[in-house]
């Protein structure tokens, strides 16, 4: 077996080691990566920025802990931007393992901005079957959520006075992993004509471009890059901005492996001829 | 009658849900809201069924000492623990600092994060083995993937060109392909729904 053939059959453990070293270096020696701001990310930022103090945005935290690295920075930055501008939030968590994670984020950021539950934000929590829940909220938030996450009836919360359904919120921002995204487009936008914006994981990003062009989706944050774009726009650089250097090096390593693999492929083919 | 009644219920419900979409009258809205409540109630029963099914499958695996039965024991222990802790203090169990939340933060969250992180290693290995310039189509796929990956990497003076190219790929060829898939899925779902409403497709009733 010559060198190129050996290169073709490189043990996967070497690849794993390469990736492990690559992602460790930027953690030990951090550096900044320039980020290009996409129009779709800017659209989400401008929507929040153009919402007047006192108006309500519906923020859906629809992901499990496995997507935290990519999506938590988006939710955190949007929440901070909203609270700092005096925007009120109705928050839900329709992914089954997300409610506790969302609650921790809400309690941390509401304390930072001295925001009160029931006055400045309402946390609805979780209900099973996101499609049905999203449909029902289009009629009335009280159908799937007669009480909030903490068990307080929605009717006794001052912020919910006169707030019935999607017509009473400025728009919906869903930070989402998985097929819950489709329900927001099909039901909240399709049926109830709500303005919908998304923050999605990197692998989901390409799936939602058609909805941007059709106007069913008005803004899109894609993966960690989208999160870092948002942090830059909101001037709140944090974990997503830091994570971009790790992601950059990891991508470079993957590209390097692809190039090496192809060199091995071509050279061994040449030798056989 | 055992077959006709479910078909009749499905037909009436299906036709109503189609019609109410186009009639914004309050009487239809009232029935629709009522139907929403029913769907949620039925959904909760489905969850109980899932719980029962998981328990039964795990117990029988443990009893038969089937390969990997130890994992089933862990499933049952985890299920019982979280159920007990969840019900024990009711709504208070989800407050920060409770044992329930500690299990969530210090066991469940790291497990999920680890599982997802492993993808980075598998993707690198898979890319190394499968992204080979064997045919014209494979080359197009490889070049496209490289452009999309490179948009995350600062490339100095060619960054702008690459960003433009990546954006074009996502908003033109990607969108065309995705749209074709979505329309196909939509038409397929409509056809299946019509077959169910009109009683042509009866697999949901199980065996006769």
Structure overview:
The complex is a heterodimer of chains A (273) and B (208). Helices cover 50% and strands 12% of the residues of chain A. Chain A is of the alpha/beta class and 273 residues long. Chain A has one domain (39-237): Rossmann fold (3-Layer(aba) Sandwich), CATH 3.40.50. Chain A has a six-stranded parallel beta sheet with strand order 3-2-1-4-5-6, sandwiched between helices. In chain A, helix 4 links the parallel strand 1 and strand 2 (88-92). In chain A, helix 3 (39-50) packs across helix 9, helix 4 (68-84) runs parallel beside helix 5 and helix 9 runs antiparallel to helix 10. The two termini of chain A are 15 Å apart. The model of chain A has no long low-confidence stretch (mean pLDDT 91). Among the domains of chain B are: 1-67; 131-198, no CATH class. In chain B, helix 6 (159-171) packs parallel to helix 7. Chain B is mainly alpha-helical. The longest helix of chain B is centred in the first third of the chain and has 38 residues, at 26-63. Chain B is extended and about 70 Å long. Classes of the chains: A alpha/beta (273), B mainly alpha (208).
């Amino acid at each position: 077996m010559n060198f190129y053939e050996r290169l073709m059959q490189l043990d996967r453990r070497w690849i794993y080691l390469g990736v492990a070293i690559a992602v460790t270096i930027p953690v030990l020696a951090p550096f900044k990566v320039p980020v290009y701001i996409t129009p779709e990310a800017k659209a989400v930022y401008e929507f929040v920025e153009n919402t007047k103090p006192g108006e309500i945005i519906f923020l859906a935290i629809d992901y499990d802990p496995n997507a935290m690295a990519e999506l938590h920075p988006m939710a955190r930055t949007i929440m901070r931007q909203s609270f700092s501008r005096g925007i009120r939030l109705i928050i839900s968590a329709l992914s089954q393992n997300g409610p506790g994670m969302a609650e921790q984020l809400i309690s941390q950021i509401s304390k930072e901005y001295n925001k009160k539950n029931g006055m400045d934000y309402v946390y609805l929590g979780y209900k099973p079957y996101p499609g049905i829940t999203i449909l029902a909220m289009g009629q009335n938030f009280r159908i799937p959520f007669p009480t909030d996450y903490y068990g307080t009836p929605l009717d006794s919360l001052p912020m919910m006075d006169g707030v019935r359904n999607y017509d009473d919120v400025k728009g919906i921002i869903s930070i989402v992993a998985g097929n819950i995204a489709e329900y927001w487009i099909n039901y909240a936008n399709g049926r109830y004509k709500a303005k919908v914006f998304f923050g999605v994981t990197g692998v989901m990003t390409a799936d939602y471009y058609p909805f941007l062009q059709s106007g069913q989706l008005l803004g899109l944050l894609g993966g960690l890059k989208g999160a870092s774009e948002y942090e830059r726009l909101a001037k709140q650089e944090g974990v997503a901005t830091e994570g971009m250097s790790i992601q950059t090096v990891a991508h470079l390593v993957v590209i390097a492996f692809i190039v090496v693999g192809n060199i091995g492929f071509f050279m061994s083919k040449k030798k056989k001829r | 009658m055992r077959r006709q009644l479910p078909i009749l219920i499905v037909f009436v419900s299906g036709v109503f849900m189609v019609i109410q979409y186009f009639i914004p009258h309050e009487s239809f809205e009232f029935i629709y809201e009522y139907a929403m409540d029913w769907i949620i109630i039925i959904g909760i029963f489905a969850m109980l069924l899932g719980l029962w099914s998981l328990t039964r499958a795990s117990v029988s695996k443990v009893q038969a000492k089937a390969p990997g039965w130890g994992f089933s024991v862990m499933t049952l222990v985890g299920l019982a623990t979280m159920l007990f802790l969840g019900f024990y203090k009711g709504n208070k169990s989800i407050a920060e600092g409770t044992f329930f939340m500690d299990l969530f933060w210090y066991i469940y969250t790291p497990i999920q994060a680890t599982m997802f992180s492993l993808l980075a290693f598998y993707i690198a290995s898979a890319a190394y083995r499968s992204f080979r310039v064997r045919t014209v189509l494979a080359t197009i796929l490889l070049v496209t993937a490289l452009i999309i990956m490179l948009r995350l990497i600062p490339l100095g003076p060619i960054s702008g060109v690459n960003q433009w190219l990546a954006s074009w790929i996502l908003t033109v060829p990607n969108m065309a392909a995705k749209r074709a898939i979505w329309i196909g899925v939509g038409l397929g779902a409509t056809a299946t729904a019509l077959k169910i409403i009109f009683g042509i497709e009866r697999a949901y009733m199980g065996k006769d």
